Amino acid sequence: MTELLYKEEVYQIIGAAMEVYNQLGNGFLEGVYQDAMGIELGIRKIPFTEQTPLEITYKGQPLRHHYLPDMVLFNVIILELKVITSLGANEEAQLLNYLKASGLRLGLLINFGSKNKLEWKRLVL
After folding, report:
1. For the segment 96-110, what is each residue's pLDDT rounded down to a tens digit?
2. With contact defined as beta carbons under 8 Å apart, do 80 and 113 qualify?
3. pLDDT in the model for residue 2
4. H helices of 1-125, where?
5. With the CA atoms of 121, 107, 9 and 22 taken in that order, what torsion angle do they form, in degrees rounded to the nearest 10?
6. In sequence order, which residues have a C-beta less than 8 Å from that of residue 38 and are 6 or more positions away?
7. Hey, CA dihedral for 10, 33, 35, 82, is it positive or negative?
């Protein structure tokens, strides 16, 4: 059986997100959840950076535009936060592009907008 990539790290991140959801519920803007996640990650001593630009290249040339993922955790996991009814193909495509641009292999989509539950997806490139 194949071992999940960064299993323990993902467990810690989802635990932090669940605490944020349990404290705030749904209905806030994305920035509120990002701020709360930053506090919760700090409390749990989970290393992260926010809004770190990812360079995009075309035929080996850097483009002027950059991707700005919400967070990069443990220096190896991209985290994208959403506040929408449900996650779909557009959100998955966005995260996959972030993974391609960064060279990282694992990304998490966390949606605080779903009623009565925290919704999340794990994507591996």
Report:
1. 999 998 889 999 999
2. no
3. 74
4. 7-24, 30-43, 89-102
5. -40
6. 48, 50, 71
7. positive
Q: Which of 5-9, 50-54, 85-89 has the lowest mean pLDDT?
A: 50-54
- DSSP state letter for 3: P
Distance, first Cα to last Cα, the chain: 19
d(CA 42, CA 14): 14
Specify whether the CB–CB gap between 26 and 112 falls below 8 A: yes
**What average pLDDT does range 40-68 have in this prediction?**
92
CATH hierarchy code of domain 7-124: 3.40.960
State the Cα–Cα distance between residues 71 and 51, nearest whole angstrom: 6
Q: Which of 9, 3, 31 is nearest to 108 (CA)?
A: 9
Provide the pLDDT for residue 67.
87
Task: Supply the pLDDT for residue 118.
Answer: 95
Please report, as a single letter, which amino acid is at residue 110.
Answer: I
CA dist., res. 21 & res. 8, Å (int): 20
Statement: residue 1 has pLDDT above 90: no
